[in-house]
Structures are given as C-alpha cells and as structure tokens.
Design brief:
Keywords: Hydrolase, Signal. Pfam families: LIP. There is one protein chain. This protein is α+β, with helices and mostly antiparallel strands. 28% of the residues lie in helices and 32% in strands. The strands form two sheets. Strands 11, 12, 13, 14, 15, 16, 17, 18, 19, 20, 21 and 22 form a twelve-stranded antiparallel β-sheet that branches. It starts with a helix and ends with a strand. 50% of the residues are buried.
C-alpha cells in the first residue's frame, strides 16, 4: 500500500516536484457574498493550491479574539486518488504587527470532526460564532499567527465530505497555504514559515500532511507539526469506537471513506435499508454534537445487510485495504512533531497513538509526546497553550531533542468504560478558590492543594462531585490582625445537573455544601483553640453556561454570592464571630482546571 502512495505523490505534485511554485492559470475572482459562494466554477485546468475565488468575511471567535481580517476562499486541491477537487476554507490575519523575527508565520489549522452536512463546514460555523474550535483558533491569532482553516474536501454545494480520508485532508491543509499566497492582503509568501496543527480528525490530517509534504508540497516551508488525539490505526480505533460512546464517529468515517473509495467500501451493497436511511439523515443536516448523542453506543451491525459485524466488514479485502490506506507512520516525519493524547480518551485509544510515536522514532523522526490526564474533549483545549509554546520555539528555530529517548514508563489509559453513558470525569482537578467575607471586607484564599473531583454525566444530565480542601491558615483582621486556622469541609457531595447541547455549549447547575470551622486564632504559633463553626453547611451554587472548550482551557469558573449561617460552639466569642463572619453577601469564586500534562 505504501508503494502506491509514494508513486502517486510525485504525479499529484508534478509542477512543484520540478521546483516550480504553482501559479493560477488566470487571476482568482472575487466570489459572491451569499451561499452561491459554495458553488464555484468547475476547474478544467490548473495546479494544486490554485485559488478559484475569494471574499472578505467576518467571523465570530468569541470575546477573547484579537482584531483580525478574514477571507473565505475556494481553492483547488487533490483527493486521495489523485483527482482534482475543490475545497473551501478561511484565512485569518491578526491586525497587530508580528512581533517575532522575519515574516509573520502561518498555522494551517486542521479541524476535528464537524459533521457531514454542508452547514457544519468550519467556515460557516465560524461566521455564525458556533464553531466549537473557536478557542484554539483565537489562541493562535493572539499568538500572532496567520491562521488558515481548511473546511476539508466536500463542503461545496452538491458534494459530500470524504471524512477521514487522510491523504485528501493532508493535501487540503497544504494547498490552502498555496492558495493564501494568491490572496490579496494575506501577507503569505513562498518564504512564509508554516506549521500544521490539528486534533482528532485534525490529528490524522496534520500527521498525514507532514508525511506528504516532501513529495506533494516541497514549496511549502513546513517547520513543525502538532498532532493530538490522533487515530493512527483505523482497525484499533474502529474497534474502540464501535458500540461505544464515540460510535457516531465510526459511522461518519464509514460514510466519508465510502465517498472517497466507493469500490473499497460499497455502501450500496453493504448498508441495509435502515442503514441507508440513517446515512441519508447524517449527511443531510447533522453536525458533530447531533450525531454524538443520536448514535451513541450503536453497533455498526445495526446498519448492515444481514447485520454483519465490524469484524466481518473488516475482513472484506477491499474494506481492509481502504482502512490500511489510512494508516500513519509509514514515512519519516520530515520536521519536529508534537504528538499528544489524553489518558482518559473515550473516543480515540491511547495505545495506538503511542505505537505511532514508536514508528516515527524508529524512522529517526524528532518526536515529543505530551501526555494529558484527561478525556478527549478536555485534552483538545487544555493542550493549546503547550502546543502554541512548542510551535513558537520551532518557528524561532530553537532546537528540540524530543522524547524518543525516554526512560519514563509507558502511559496507561484510564478512560471510563465504553458502551454506557457519556461521563466526563474530573479526577482531582486543581481548585483555585476565593471567598470574600462581606463584613470583614477581606479575601480568604483556599490552599493550592485544594481539588475538585466529579463525574459529569452528559447522557443522564447529572453532576456528582466532591471538594477536597486541606485545613489552612489565613490572616484576618478580627479586632486585631490574627492568624486564623480554618477548615472548609464538605458536608455532602456537590450535585446538580450537567449537560452538553448540540451547539457544543456546556451547562452546569448544582450546589456544593461545606461546613466552615474556625479551629484556632492567634499570633503565629500562639494559637487559642476555638472549634466554632457555621450552624448549618454553607451552600455554594455552582452554575456555568459556556463553550465546552472552557472545560479544558481552565475557564470553568463558578462565581456567586451566598449567605453564611450564624456561628456556634465559639464560647464567649460566639456573638463576635457571628457578627464578623455570618450573614448574606459572601462572595466566592471557584475555578477548576485540568491537572498538568507530562511527556513520554
């Protein structure tokens, strides 16, 4: 199979293999401002990366996005079989001057799964302010990069995405760099340094782009690749997904690969009437979170003629060859690569990505592997600062040794069991908490060792968790400045509702309850024991409504105002402590964020 790919690449990139940067046959046109933009003219000639047409646009990346210019474009690319195709995408350029050396560099951002309907295209989602990857795209813009976001092939009107066809996706994220060079005002030139960054589907895309670049796009000055949550081995990944939490991704992969390889995966003969109806529904109007919940825990056999199992399907030679064609690691990565994965990933198995690292290392690639203690969605956004810092260093030409030579033990997966509810576990996440005492007008910071553990069941819509706060000392002005030893002890679990809607918005509505105890007060080691505490537990409402990206980005913050009950067991000081520490208007802020990553 590898021989076929290596033979195809020079033919696909014949122009660039001769050292000539591809140019348009005729000047690109300004395209229309309505949806007819996605129905571009047919291309009869030209080279990969030729710009068909473009238009200025506006995108909504959220409140933290920096000022930028944006364009939509349609450009020529190449599918996995060597045929020309048309791909849509978006170019975003920060308005602030580049602060680094040389030209402003480019990140070609390879998106994760968006869905097979046209309305799911990243360019349309960004325009509507509903793209779930906005946080990472905005972070790359804040870092000063020009960001290119290919929609991937198949979102032009009348087409269907070739979802998970690695070569087609890899070509698309390389060709958008070439197309951006032809875009007036982009600032992208043949000398622009380029990195490709992607996660999940985008992890496959970015790694494949790196493998393809030497033959397919030697004119693209690729300096680094970042590839996270990567499905490197489709056989292992399919087995992991089937009849489990992420089974919708397997169904979409079958549809997308059948679109690219109709002889390899002949859906007309493999899919049952029920399966064909479900395929039509997925293609017609469902985006990623629609399918995630509608097809959770479904077995692929439900959609096949004679209820053929996954193993029976994989044993069909043409299907087997098609899946094998998507395998990563057959080529040396020509530039440094940052691979990363969550140990609790419930969608993409960790072990097959670790195996890809070993494949690259055996070919003397420069690999750094980041290990994150979280599940799939959390890791995607938690990793962004680390990825961008690593890419900054590569763009600056700094050397990296990588982690191929490591004595650390192999990471172990700890994902929740598949086949049941979709549960996101927060396992001893650091808790950064502050309580503002109203009467004293003073802040109490909980100790750094405080943690929050919870199961957020997105299927059942429930939250069940616990605070863990060690006893600690703080300075309080109670008549005189005193060192006060406090205890914040949960009286019951943190409970409530938690859900993820079809727009990728996370909703949390619960309460945490804790007894607050003044254990002692004094000056330094000279402490007078008290043991006085609130008559009843303090109720802290925990409410959050925001993008799912905030969960991994460390922006899951609960703020509010509560009432402290009167104090008891304070002896002669009962009235004093009640006056100073009880009553309404006690403000609080609880922020929970994922534990820090490591490397392997």
């Amino acid at each position: 199979m590898r021989m076929t790919k290596k033979m195809a690449s020079p033919l696909l990139g014949l122009v660039v293999s001769l050292g000539v940067t591809p140019l348009t046959v005729q000047a690109a046109m300004v395209g229309p401002n309505d949806m007819s933009f996605y129905d571009p003219p047919q291309m009869t000639s030209g080279a990969p990366g030729d710009l068909t047409w473009y238009r200025q646009t506006t995108v909504d990346l959220g409140a933290n996005a920096v000022a930028h210019q944006a364009w939509n474009l349609v450009y020529r690319s190449t599918d996995a079989k060597g045929d020309s195709n048309r791909v849509t995408g978006t170019v975003l350029v920060p308005q602030a001057p580049w602060q680094g050396s040389g030209q402003r560099p480019v990140i070609s951002y390879a998106v994760g799964t968006h869905g097979l309907a046209q309305r799911c295209a990243p360019s349309l989602q960004m325009a509507n302010g509903t793209d779930y990857e906005n946080a990472n795209i905005a972070a790359a813009l804040r870092a000063g990069y020009t960001v290119l976001v290919s929609d991937n092939p198949g979102y032009t009107t009348g087409d269907s995405p070739t979802y998970m066809s690695g070569a087609a996706q890899g070509h698309a994220v390389l060709d958008i760099v070439r197309a951006a060079r032809q875009l007036p005002g982009s600032g992208v030139t043949s000398n622009t340094r380029v990195a490709v960054w992607g996660y999940s589907q985008g992890g496959q895309t970015s790694a494949r782009a790196g493998e393809l670049q030497p033959d397919y796009a030697p004119d693209v000055d690729l300096v680094a690749v970042a590839s996270g949550g990567t499905p490197a081995n489709f056989f292992d990944t399919a087995e992991y997904l089937n009849a489990s939490t992420g089974s919708s991704f397997l169904l979409q992969a079958v549809i997308g690969l059948a679109e690219q390889y109709p002889q390899g995966i002949p859906l007309d003969t493999l899919a049952s009437p029920y399966g064909k109806a479900e395929i039509d529904k997925v293609k017609a109007d469902q985006c990623v979170f629609d399918t995630l919940f509608d097809y959770m825990n479904k077995d692929i056999a439900e959609y096949t003629v004679g209820n053929q199992s996954l193993q029976q399907l994989i044993s069909i030679p043409s299907v087997n060859d098609t899946l094998e064609e998507q395998a990563l690691g057959g080529e040396k990565m020509p530039v440094p690569i940052y691979q990363y994965h969550g140990t609790a990933d419930e969608f993409i198995p960790l072990d097959q990505h670790l195996a890809l690292k070993k494949k690259y290392c055996r070919k003397f690639s420069n690999v750094t592997f980041g290990v994150y203690p979280s599940e799939h969605i959390v890791t995607q956004f938690q990793a962004a600062p680390t990825v961008l810092e690593w890419l900054d260093d590569r763009m600056a030409g700094e050397f990296t040794l990588g982690t191929c030579l490591t004595l650390k033990p192999r990471p172990t997966a700890n994902a929740n069991p598949g086949g049941g509810d979709f549960v996101v576990t927060l396992d001893q996440w650091p808790l950064d908490a502050n309580i503002h005492l109203a009467t004293l007008d003073q802040d109490v910071e909980l100790p750094e060792e405080s943690t929050f553990t919870a199961d957020t069941n997105m299927t059942a819509g429930t939250l069940d968790g616990d605070l863990a706060v060690p006893d600690f000392s703080t300075k309080l002005n109670i008549v005189l400045p005193l060192d006060v030893k406090l205890s914040v002890e949960p009286s019951s679990s943190t409970s409530g509702s938690a859900s993820l809607d079809n727009q990728g918005q996370l909703h949390v509505d619960g309460q945490a309850f804790a007894n607050i105890t003044v254990k002692s007060a004094g000056a330094g080691v000279l402490q007078i024991p008290f043991g006085c505490k609130t008559e009843n537990p303090v109720a802290f409402p925990v409410k959050f409504d925001g993008p799912i990206s905030d969960l991994g980005a460390g922006n899951l913050t609960f703020t509010g105002t509560t009432t402290f009950p009167p104090m008891k067991d304070c002896g002669l000081f009962n009235s004093l402590f009640t006056t100073l520490m009880s009553g309404p208007g006690q403000e609080y802020s609880f922020n929970v964020s994922p534990p820090a990553p490591t490397t392997w």
